[in-house]
Design goal:
Layout (H helix, E strand, L loop, with lengths): L2 H38 L9 H4 L7
């Protein structure tokens, strides 16, 4: 392996590590948003609440 190839592989390795860290942060952020949305989507009560629970219940 030449010195140029080694430098290229080192650069690619560093790039992939950075990209992986960014993607992991995105997954963590999306997971937190999902949890917040699920907490806010508590079952509705009262008249007309049934369609909120399942928006596809009327068919397509």
């Amino acid at each position: 392996m030449t010195e140029e190839e080694a430098k290229r592989l080192q650069w690619e390795n560093a790039y992939l590590k950075d990209r992986c860290a960014l993607l992991e942060a995105s997954v963590t952020d999306l997971d937190a948003k999902l949890c917040r949305l699920q907490q806010g989507a508590a079952p509705a009560k009262g008249p007309g609440a049934s369609w909120l629970a399942n928006p596809l219940s009327t068919g397509q």
